[in-house]
Amino acid sequence: MSAPRRAPRRPVDGVLLLDKPTGLTSNAALQKARWLLNAAKAGHTGTLDPLATGLLPLCFGEATKFAGELLDADKAYRATIRLGVTTDTADAEGHVLETRPVEVDQARLEAVLASFRGGIEQIPPMHSALKRDGKPLYEYARQGIELERKPRRITIHALELLSLEGELAVIDVACSKGTYVRTLAADIGALLGCGAHLAALRRTRIGGLRVEDAVALDVFEALTLEARDRCLAPPDTLLAELPVATLNAAETERVLHGQGVRWEGRSGDRWRYYGINGAFLGLGELSTDGWLNPRRLIASRPEISGSI
After folding, report:
1. Spatial CA neighbour of 236 closest among 194, 266, 261, 208
2. Active site residue 49
C-alpha cells in the first residue's frame, strides 16, 4: 500500500525569524521550514555558515520580494575567539596552521579591540562565497590557490569584551554589511601576536530584527500547522526601518497601477507604502523630481486588507 500523497504546496506569505542551530546550512534550514509550512515559495535574507547559530529571517510568498532589503542592514554577533591557534579558514572548521603560546591579559585585549572600532579595512577571506571570474573564492582555496583580494571598507560600530577565560575570549560585535567576523577574529589574534580563530558565532540582530524574537527549529517543528502559521510576521517586517508613506484613495489607486505619487523627501530614499485601509502595498523610491515610484509591490489579492 503506497504512502498518502502530500498535499500540494500552498500560498504562504510572511517572515519566519528562525534561530538557526549549528551544523545546518542556511539553505537546509530554509528547506526544512518550507516543508513544515508546505509553502509554495521561499527564500532567505543572507546566509549563516553551518558553524554559526542565531537569527536567520526566512521569507515566504510575497515576503520574498523584499528579502534583499536586509542585505545592506547592520548586523550584530556574539563571537567566541580561540587565541593561540590559527586555521586556514580562520574558524573552527579549518585545518590548524600554527599554535602559539598565549600571554594575553584583559587590558591588552581591550587595547587591541579598541583599534578595530570605527571604520577599518578588511581583506575578505579566501574561504568565502565572493566570486572571481564567476567562481567562488572557496573553490580556489580548496585547490590550494591563493588569490589577491582588495581590502574592503567596513565599520565596526561596537566591539565589547564580555569575558576572557584562558584562551577563549567572548565578544559582542555590531558591524556594517560585508564584515567577516572570522577575519576580524584572525586579525585580532595577529595584532595580539599569538594568532586566533573564530571558535563559535551567534547572530543576534539584523537591522531591527532580534534573535530574542526568533523561534528554534525544533520548537517550530513540534507545533501544529496552524501554530506554525501564527509564528509568521507580515512581509513589511523586513522594511521596518524605512519611513511610512500613508496614501489616500487616489494615491493608492495610482500606486497599484504602477504609477508614482508626488512626495516630499530626499532623492533616492525608500518608503514603505500603506493604503487607505492600512494595508501594506509595497516599496517605493523617491526620484530626483519628487515622485515616489513603486519598486516592488505585493500582489493584489484579498489578503492585502488584512494581516497574515
Report:
1. 208
2. yes
